[in-house]
Amino acid sequence: MKLNLNIEPLSNWLKPQHQPLVIAGPCSAETEEQLLATADLLAKTGKISVLRAGIWKPRTRPGEFEGIGSIGLKWLQRAKEQTGLPITVEVATGKHVEEALAAGVDILWVGARSTVNPFTVQEIADALKGVDVPVMVKNPVNPDLSLWIGALERINNAGITKLAAISRGFSSYEKSAFRNEPMWELTIQLKTLCPQLPVICDPSHICGNRELIPYISQKALDLEMQGLMVESHIDPSVAWTDAKQQLTPSSLSELIDHLTIRQPDPVNPKVIDKLAELRKQIDKIDDLVIQKLAERMSIVDKIGEYKRDNGITILQLNRWDEIIQKRASFGKALKLDEDFTTKMLELIHAESIRRQTEIMNAKAPVAEK
Ligand SMILES: C=C(O[C@@H]1C=C(C(=O)O)C=C[C@H]1O)C(=O)O
């Protein structure tokens, strides 16, 4: 997959007040008092760089609070005047874009439920043509990297070069401690495809509860994300939306104080040398692992030919089961995570099956006359 985005560095459009960059504010603007009081306390921490608030809320079922609507833009403007903080809102239609821009909103974001729908994203992109405003694109609800990339491309094709992605977790059927599974590998894939794209983490939507937010925030920073978007409410216990995952401004301030900021690239020559030495060892081992995998696959091929010639099925469940049991417990004894060993073996097995399928189905060579 290729991703060529024409984007500006984050420092061109967002100057963090404090490290790390934190965008914060209530999930929803509920009343003018609630928004202004929250904004005031957040600004007083000196650690918040942008004020967020949802005013148009995509809700799962009708009849739930769907956001205060356009009136919230006036409150946000007042909060901006009062605190000096730039403001950001979620937009989900072309009309939202027009209204937000007319109200002087500094940064727009596209929500996860919009990113899943290319028609919606295109409508937003069309409304952005000829406008110079920063846009942040949340990942789609479902774990589909192409949809996320597609949304970034649509916004970028509209001429928006001040672009960032927001990692907010993905919905999953599996029961988990998280509201939305982080699935970090997808964000890492996006960063690998487009290293210059700033990525911000939204720990509030990943966690769904306050308790896990510090852990996920630290992890996001250690995965080289450029900032955090955290929901904060003056009194989360009475919040109209996302009550369980919002933090008071003072808890957020405390959380920020406890974060460890690590450098992406080492500068100390001693550290550089030590890392280089350890990485050399890893390089050697990786070469051996690949070599051994290739050897294993050539035996798999031989078994495939033998099975073909003797009318035996490719999948051998008993043998496979034995391998999984034995290797997983061997790995465990060597302090490897069982889940990791199992996943790795499953990948290897899938490749064995693929190769043997090719062998089984290869056209038999035409016999010489
Ligand atoms: C290699 C074989 O074929 C398949 C692949 C296996 C493997 O990769 O180890 C194990 C069992 C089979 O499902 C085999 O039958 O031994």
From TrEMBL:
GO terms for biological process: chorismate metabolic process. Gene3D superfamilies: Aldolase class I, Chorismate mutase. GO terms for molecular function: chorismate mutase activity; transferase activity. It is an enzyme of class 5 (isomerase). It comes from the Bacteria. Its EC number is 5.4.99.5. Residues 269-360 form the Chorismate mutase domain. InterPro entries: Aldolase_TIM, Chorismate_II_sf, Class-I_DAHP_synthase, CM_dom_sf, CM_II_prokaryot, DAHP1/KDSA. Coiled coil: none annotated. Keywords: Transferase. This is chorismate mutase. The lineage of its organism: Bacteria, Pseudomonadati, Bacteroidota, Sphingobacteriia, Sphingobacteriales.
